[in-house]
Design goal:
UPF0729_C18orf32-like, UPF0729 protein C18orf32 homolog, elongated, mainly alpha, 1 helix
Length: 76
């Protein structure tokens, strides 16, 4: 059984996004932009910061397709 807020909140959010936001957003956007100004993202001078290199992985850290490292363990 699902609780009432789990049903009501998504429905109210959908109604707001679909029908009310196109009319309300232009009215409140000037106030929001004053309170919450956008700041430019600054790049650091160290380009290797945050980059981690692993053998056998791609950019996202997921295993690559292809041969993996060959282990030195004996096979029975």
């Amino acid at each position: 059984m699902v609780c009432i807020p789990c049903i009501v909140i998504p429905v109210l959010l959908w109604i707001y996004k679909k029908f009310l936001e196109p009319y309300i957003y232009p009215l409140i956007s000037p106030f929001v932009s004053r309170i919450w100004p956008r700041k430019a993202v600054q790049e650091s001078n160290d380009k290797n910061q945050g980059k981690i290199h692993y053998k056998g992985t791609d950019i996202n850290g997921l295993p690559t397709k292809g041969p993996a490292e060959i282990s030195d363990k004996k096979k029975d």
